[in-house]
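Something for you to look into today, if you have time. What I am after is a single protein written out in full by you. I want to see for myself how the chain folds. Could you add the entry underneath, on a fresh line?
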Amino acid sequence: MRPLMMQPIGTIHTPFTDLKDMPIQPAGAVGVRGRVEVFEEYRDGLKDLDGFSHVILLYAFHRSEGFNLEVVPFMDTVPRGLFATRAPRRPNPIGISVVQLDGLADGVLHVQNIDVLDGTPLLDIKPFFPAFDHPENVRTGWLESAEEKVRATRSDGRFVSGKP
């Protein structure tokens, strides 16, 4: 299989400049504002996006190196399979966040509830559509008991590159 090649289409700007003490999910970043700058050559693709209240951002965990197939995730003390977590150190370090879109002007999305490190490369933007993105009868596995912790849990450096 040939390697996949992806190029950033923009840059995400947030108040978070350090991996430690930042929210681990958008639910823990309520009210945090950021900007998503789309590069000039991709701005025509933003047409009609301003009609949506929320967007899905896909981005590269650009400060992530290496991975382990078993990790102790945030909000837990038990080792879990990597693919049963949202840990940032992954074979393909791709992140996803659903954020509120407050405005769009001159190729810049103004968003809030963003949990992303400043300077993160943006890979794609998709509109959030509840009928597509809200399945029924959802099971949340080991995270079911951790749901209330997500708002208060902050990154503690356990997934900083070079750590097991």
Summary: The chain has one helix and eight strands. The longest strand covers residues 94-105. The CA atoms of residues 40 and 107 lie 7 Å apart.
